[in-house]
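Researcher: Here's the sequence for the chain we discussed earlier.
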Amino acid sequence: MKQIICVSHGKICRPLDTLTIKEAYKIKRLGEVIKEKYGGNFHIASSSAQKAMQTASILRNSIDNSLVVEETSALYCEENHFTPEKISRLYNLYNSQRERVDNLVFVGSSSIKDILGQLNMLESVEGEPLKNLSSMSALVLNLEDRTTDTISSNKR
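Model: Thanks. This is the structure I predict for it:
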């Protein structure tokens, strides 16, 4: 079983040699929280290929070996911020790998409200992208204030 982690956090997704101890700890804590909540193996998707690889590297080195982290090119873009279009592409990736992915996980410094707003805008971007995703849940983890929220995509 695979999970998708959507990483958008400029402060902690920098070149590894420029990370502070506190920033590296946040990534480690992120891995612990996600493993605690979901367990299993993960895909990391980021708006930047470099960020995805760096974050995956830290997670691999900081969490025990039962957490397998893989990068995916689903959201490799020049910009560092998620837009409804990028999230829609991630939903499309999810649809293509339904047998392997049960949860869509957004991780970032954006506020939960902002990400919820982006999710609500999906229908205007892709028509009805949520119609086949009623069993999917999305976890929003805000590393700045340590809050989490789980969003069900079952809107119908």
